[in-house]
Amino acid sequence: MSQNKILYITPSMQSFVKSDIRILSNYFTVRVINQPWGNKKLAPFNFIAQFLSMLFSIFGSKFILVNFGGYWAFWATIFGKLFGKKVFIITHGTDCASIPELNYGSLRISLLKRICEFSYTRAEAIFPVSESLIGTELHFDPAITSRKQGLLFHFPDLNVPIKTIYNGLDESQWTLPIKPNRITNSFLTVMSPSQFNLKGGDLILQISREYPRCSFYFAGVQASELELETCANVHFLGFLDPKELLEWYQKCEFYFQLSSFEGFGCALCEAMLCGAIPIGSDTNHIPKIVGEAGFIIPEKSLKSAVSVMDKAIGSINKDILSINSRLHIQANYSLALREQKLIEALEHFTGKSYTN
């Protein structure tokens, strides 16, 4: 391992964050700075704590890599300029969007948008996880009127290099079942309670009423967290750890990703690696992730969904679609491919080699 030290700033520790840290640790000594920014009451404390952490960590660091645009990128940008350290920012979705209709997007908050602009315009380069985060137009959800989204829409004068580097999934963690025993006509989706409408939970409930003989499973949500009437064929699994989630990916025939906006779709890729057949919304990067292995609903409406559902349920080649789902993710969104692209980009923008 190289002894080159880098700073990695992140507001959270999702699975894709941990994967990036493992990747980077093959080439650098990674100093992770992570404050609980999700708790708004702690924001002033986090601001001070991050300043002190960076003050004692900046010396000897080769560069700074920031995960998500946000408040935590402010000190990274300041310290980068003061100490001559290049700053790179990975964007994931909410940091490139403003969708008031869904109460979604960091850029709908005036102060946060100004901080994002401050850091984006001073970064050495920005690494979005899909092209749609550079610029896209949303047509899936008719409730959205703010259709144009992405870095270049919200910051038209942004002139720093932008290079898309897709997320990568660990195919050794998300595997096909040894003995497939899937629940016939079963549909799984993963979301938190706050993401229910954003990720199409409302549409899935409408679909469930039309297909009483199918089973619909929500991971990450408890029924008690939603004040909604549901049918007997709808099941809420609550929080699942990775092992439990793997089991559900392997036992359900289909996976729903019906988001109105989705920066990438890691859970969708995980499910596909496990052989779940994807049914996705026609938005952002989801159609490219689904590819030819599944189905796309063109509009957030029950009429559009029923047409696609009938095709999915009536498929005579489910086994082939299941295998193709895994093969498609392996070929296009592997962890090894992200490692290659991320390190190549860092070498290019720093002018140094880290692979020797």
TrEMBL record:
Top-level division of the source organism's lineage: Bacteria
Domain Glycosyl transferase family: 211-313
Ranges that cross the membrane: 47-75
Gene Ontology annotations of biological process type: lipopolysaccharide biosynthetic process
InterPro entries in the record: Glyco_trans_1
Keyword field: Membrane, Transferase, Transmembrane, Transmembrane helix
Pfam family name, one: Glycos_transf_1
SUPFAM superfamilies referenced in this protein's UniProt entry, alphabetically: UDP-Glycosyltransferase/glycogen phosphorylase
CDD domains named among the record's database cross-references: GT4_PimA-like (cd03801)
MF GO annotations: glycosyltransferase activity
Protein name, UniProt field: Glycosyltransferase involved in cell wall biosynthesis
